[in-house]
UniProtKB/TrEMBL annotation:
GO terms for biological process: regulation of DNA-templated transcription. The lineage of its organism: Eukaryota, Viridiplantae, Streptophyta, Embryophyta, Tracheophyta. It comes from Arachis hypogaea. Putative transcription activator involved in regulating light control of development. Keywords: Metal-binding, Nucleus, Zinc, Zinc-finger. Its main location: nucleus. This is Protein FAR1-RELATED SEQUENCE. Residues 464-474, 490-499 have a biased composition (Polar residues). InterPro entries: FHY3/FAR1, MULE_transposase_dom, Znf_PMZ, Znf_SWIM.
């Protein structure tokens, strides 16, 4: 499956950092990579390397995985390598918005010192302020809490354009405003991983994670395709058009805006050349006036609330203008393809005329999406299964003949770089643990060391005490044994180092408990 991987090696030929993504991830990124989120999770592998998950939102507003990275450390240069290689693999397509975590240590410090500030900060992030209202609210709140000179508050305020809704209005972010979805992904991923996973086990487990997310998308696509909603807004033509156009999840958001038309008050209409200027206020807030520009010659509708720019769906003010103008369909300029049911369908205009790698990825992703639907429909019935299997087998043979059977794998063996297992890394974000990989094999639960009751030395018991064996030349009593091995050789067959059975069992317990 067109998997691409990039990696670095250390001086000892050990694996340093690793980034990988399969073909469908790359195709999804081309369609939905306008907003990219990533965060690191820990204790996901025995090398203690931070695992980074790249994700975004698909056309069902579900999580879409774009790739994974296993980092050598958490230095700036390492993250820079990761991001540059991610962009290179994704055909240099840059996201318009990147969502990642802030300084957790500083965030925790301010939360402890000023619990009330958390409420203030939450409102500052989410409230529907304009810039002037935000500035006044922030100044008043900080002054009342006595945090004017707090260093964290000052530095956070300086970055307000990257987190305050007042400044982000008009920036498309697919409802991403915090890393809460990233934290949800990390929690879900950890359910598939163990801290003892090797590199191969890690990749296989993450593949199951991706399949689970893709199954959710497939189910949502199935319901969107065969779902007919009950019309409830009174604007039946507009609502029915939206229901046929958008995925089920997005349509629910659009329908809320259509319903919101009933709560608007029409304040007047002005004309400037061919453009009409509508003015509205809401029943709940009559002081705030929204202006909507409508130019029937384009057609073009713009609202100063900028919801379409931020969310990619028309606001209630735009739908109200559509009602007054007698429009039964959403103008093409207000339809964002990424929210449509056919967002992943193949179109000749976008992929057929180009031979580039990006077009190949889009065709690959469209075929994967179609095949998933076929698999879901055909697996419900035995007759449908045989029909789909035979048709796909026949199609595969025809494609092989068209391409001269070039789909067969190349038998030439390329010289491969030798890369050893990565070294265990100490990550600053990983939680402290009571037992490290290099702990003594003599350790037991509770921190106590097992000692022999005969000689008083650790790492063995009275039954396996060497001093007892030396003094007992006649052999062991029936039913006991010092080691498991070949009696004639005097060495244990499974443990040539001379460790006793109790030591070996204890060592296995320690390793699997890491």
């Amino acid at each position: 499956m067109m998997t691409v991987a990039r990696y670095t090696k250390t001086t000892g030929d050990q694996l340093g950092s690793l980034f990988w993504a399969d073909g469908q991830m790359m195709a999804d990124y081309q369609l939905f990579g306008d907003v990219l989120a990533f965060d690191a999770t820990y204790r996901s592998n025995k090398y203690k390397k931070p695992l980074v998950v790249f994700s975004g939102s698909n056309h069902h507003k579900q999580t879409a995985i774009f790739g994974f990275a296993l980092l050598q450390d958490e230095e700036v240069r390492t993250y820079r390598w990761m991001l540059l290689n991610m962009l290179d693999v994704m055909e240099s397509k840059k996201p318009s918005v990147v969502v990642t975590d802030g300084d957790k240590a500083m965030r925790a410090a301010i939360a402890v010192k000023e619990p009330e500030f958390r409420k203030v900060f939450k409102k500052a992030v989410y409230a529907n302020f304009d810039v002037a209202e935000f500035e006044e609210y922030w100044r008043t709140a900080v002054k009342s809490l006595g945090l004017m000179e707090n260093s964290w508050v000052k530095s956070t305020y300086e970055l307000r354009q990257s987190w305050a809704t007042a400044y982000l209005r008009g920036t498309f972010c697919t409802s991403y405003k915090t890393t809460s979805r990233c934290e949800g992904i990390n929690a879900f991923v950890k359910g598939f991983l163990k801290s003892t996973n090797s590199l191969l086990e890690l990749v296989q487990s993450l593949d199951r994670v991706v399949k689970d997310y893709r199954n959710n998308e497939l189910t949502a696509q199935f319901y969107s395709s065969y779902y007919t909603p009950v019309l409830t807004t009174g604007l039946d033509k507009i609502e029915l058009f939206a229901a046929k156009l958008y995925t089920r999840a997005v349509f629910k958001e659009v329908r809320k805006q259509i319903k919101g038309v009933g709560s608007l008050l029409f304040l007047g209409k002005d004309s400037i050349s061919t453009t009409s200027v509508y003015k509205f206020s809401s029943v709940g807030n009559r002081s705030r006036v929204r202006k909507v520009l409508y130019d029937p010659s384009e057609p073009k509708i713009e609202c100063d609330c900028m919801m379409w720019n931020s969310e990619g769906i028309p606001c209630c003010h735009i739908f109200c203008v559509m009602k007054y103008e007698g429009l039964g369909e959403i103008p093409p300029g207000l339809i964002l393809r990424r929210w449509c049911k056919d967002a992943k369908e193949w179109t000749a205009s976008s992929t057929c005329d180009s031979l580039g790698h990006t077009s190949r990825l889009l065709r690959y992703g469209a075929l994967c999406s179609s095949m998933s639907v076929v698999a879901k429909l055909a697996s419900d019935d035995a007759a449908d299964f045989f029909l789909a299997r035979d048709a796909l087998t026949s199609l595969a043979r025809r494609l092989q003949l068209r391409r001269g059977n070039t789909v067969a794998q190349d038998e030439r063996v390329r010289e491969q770089d030798v890369v050893r297992d990565p070294a265990v890394t100490r990550t600053k974000g990983a939680p402290k643990r009571g037992r490290e990989m290099g702990s003594s094999t003599n350790a037991v639960p509770g921190g106590k060391r097992r000692c022999c009751t005969s000689c008083g030395l650790p790492s063995h018991t009275k039954r396996t005490c060497m001093s007892q064996r030396e003094t007992s030349q006649a052999g062991y009593p029936e039913g006991t044994s010092a080691t498991i091995g070949d009696p004639s050789s005097g060495e244990p067959s499974g443990n040539r180092s001379g460790r006793s059975c109790s030591e070996v069992c204890l060592m296995i317990w320690v390793i699997f408990d890491m």
